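Ticket #390: bound-state structure for alpha-D-galactopyranose.
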Amino acid sequence: MSEAVAGAVAERFTQLYGAGPEGVWAAPGRVNLIGEHTDYNDGFVMPFALPHTAVAAVSRRDDGVLRLHSADVDDGAGGVAELRVADLAPGTDRGWTAYPAGVVWALREAGHEVTGADIHLASTVPAGAGLSSSAALEIVVALALNDLYGLGLRGWQLARLCQRAENVYVGAPVGIMDQTAAACCEAGHALFLDTRDLSQRQIPFDLAAEGMRLLVVDTRVKHAHSEGEYGKRRAGCEKGAALLGVDALRDVPYAGLDEALERLGDDEEVRRLVRHVVTEDERVERVVSLLEAGDTAAIGPVLTEGHVSLRDDFRISCRELDLVVDTALAAGALGARMTGGGFGGSAIVLARTADVDTLTKAVQEAFAQAGLTAPRVFEAVPSAGARRLA
Ligand code: GLA
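RESOLUTION: The complex was predicted; output attached.
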């Protein structure tokens, strides 16, 4: 399968640029099993990679020119964007090219000699669905340039550079989870990641073998205020950490939560944010313990607890996400929660294999009855992280 994809992307590259690429790379989208809005609080996360990938065919250039083309963007002209690497500067680009160009900028800023490239991109990661299509784009470009220019950077180092590209060049205040997931996930595993030092453990996560499935339900909505709200939550968490005199909310121990909340006095909003982050870190640790003990079905209620916390304390769910969770649970799911940044995007549902069809139908009917656009439902199989295809 990946050979056919690599061949098709290489062929398009050849049409666009007149010669074949030096190589073809892929990087996946992700879903996050548990650990939401903990990454910019130095906490724990547990994503796994989707089979959906961003694929890049790339060749080096030595003349300072960066040419970019995407199969997924219809700019009317079907055009190739042409930039000069020396001119790349944060805030100058608000379009899709900011992601690959931002990566080149971040590599050069960090002192790596990248003298240009021809890049053609094609992605199967659903955009705007909270499945990290941007991180997949960033990481695939970073990995290709790392290989071609012999930079010798490790996956976690590429993730840091791509986060910097997104924070500074694109201007989105995201954490480190999505880029690390795209770079470091392994097939058949979820990635238990400590976002403070990026130490990680691959946790075997083979649901099918245990008679279970994880469904992704893409609600196909993305509420317009999501980016501003993300920044507000992040600022609120930082305020909480400052009030409590810690570097990050990760440093508030679960056992000391009540005392911390008391110290925050009547700042109800900060109290809610702190409570979510501290309890969410504990939920990640609980899920890891349960999976390592082979008690997979028991993670269901922990996922659902996570949703309640995101809905009531962090306040980033929405009608469509709640509808998926409530309907799935009523139809017999083991657990369900929103995943990703919130305010739309996707939810995940843990179910016994035998219940998958009934559950899927129940969710689809609930959306139809509510007059909402039909959601896209698919099974998420933990897949490979970023890699060279050809
Ligand atoms: C988005 C961000 C991540 C993370 C999640 C919430 O996906 O890109 O860094 O903060 O939201 O967990």
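RESOLUTION NOTES: The radius of gyration is 21 Å.
TICKET STATUS: resolved
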